[in-house]
Amino acid sequence: LIIVGFMGTSPQDPEVIQLSQAIEQGRVGGIIFFAHNIESPTQIKKLTDHFKSLRSPHSLILAIDQEGGKVKRLGKDKGFEDFPSAQFVAENYTPKQAYLKYKDMAQMTADAGFNTVFGPCVDLMANAQGLKNPVIGGKERSYSADPQAVIQYAKAFIQAHHDVGIMTSIKHFPGHGLANSDTHLGMVDV
User: Which letter does DSSP use for residue 62 in this model?
Assistant: First the structure.
């Protein structure tokens, strides 16, 4: 089973129709939604409800990147609430306070129809020669350079999402934050 992305914003779009058929045939087990799939809370709920209504032989994964900060698909520009970055959370909230903030974000994500979030980022903040990795530190995606702090805040994120029925997938394990450029754009030495 694979998770795929797609073009489209409504059940009537050609790629959504094609994807729906692949889901009902058991060829696709999940979908990742990107910014280009999301216009508003009403629109995305209709689209996720459409995918949920399909007769799939598998439990369908409806996934989204929703860490908070700069890494979000559900944001103010689309009619949703913005949430702070991991770095901001660790600098301004206790893990218990972070849990409450993340529970609000998780509920918003669940209300939009998603059941999986790719997050949290559990990489360590690296600051070699005063430079931040552009995709981890540069986007404030790490809680800290201290592994124990990362563990505590990541636990708060994960528990908050699990408590509203959303699966999580931790990502960007320690080491990526030491890269001097963005691994999404090419090969990088660490």
Answer: E
Whether cis (ω within 30° of 0) applies to the bond prior to 57 is no
Take residue 4 and report the two structure tokens written for it.
């795929």
Contacts of 76 (CB under 8 A, 6+ apart): 82
> For residue 182, what are its two tokens?
């963005």
Rounded Cα distance, 163 and 10, in Å: 29
Q: Which secondary-structure segment (H or E) carries 30?
A: strand 30-33
Token pair listed for 99: 């849990």
Q: Are 31 and 62 in contact (CB under 8 A)?
A: yes
Q: Which range has the worst mean pLDDT, 11-15, 34-38, 122-126?
A: 122-126
What is this structure's pTM? 0.92
d(CA 132, CA 178): 8
| Paired tokens of 45 | 């709920």
In this structure, what are the phi and psi dihedrals at residue 105, rounded to the nearest 5 degrees?
-65, -40
